[in-house]
């Protein structure tokens, strides 16, 4: 498929207009609460992009959101309605952290790819559950993924606080420091 410059421009126009509309609405609402929109936007830019630490923090926070959004878009392109990306992200995180915590002492060039691979496998396993249920039982993937989001969230909490936060035992991924 070949893209022309006008097609790319049209594709970028909607997100650009959404971004500008959000900035404009924010600038209109902030004075109602006694805030200065110019200084707020200046602080936003300098904090997110003002130095190398800001860039690193922005990219670190942005990458999971972009990758999760891409996973939803890929499923949608395949004709599936996947609203379980947050659960898949959480399970990928659990798998990555498990490798990070339990394989301490490995060289960085081994440890980092292993943790990333574990995260991919965790998300894939969690994403396969609704797929398998759809194929073998006809369960609707949207309902299954919504329910699995809650299960993943609770499981992530359990890995840190096994059973809760009121004096229960630490979970398997508890960090005492």
What characteristics describe this protein?
177 residues, mainly alpha
Question: What does it look like?
Answer:
Helix 4 packs parallel to helix 6 and helix 5 runs antiparallel to helix 6 (141-160). The mean pLDDT is 87. The chain is an all-alpha fold and 177 residues long. 75% of the residues lie in helices and 0% in strands. The protein is globular and about 50 Å long.
Secondary-structure element string = HHHHHH
- The average pLDDT value, as a whole number, equals 87
Secondary-structure-based class equals mainly alpha
Helix content: over 70%
Give the percentage of residues in beta strands.
under 5%
The Rg value, from CA coordinates, equals: 21 Å
**Strand count, sense and closure of the main sheet?**
none
Q: What is the tally of beta strands?
A: 0
Looking at the structure, what is the overall shape?
globular
Unreliable spans are none
The total of helices stands at 6
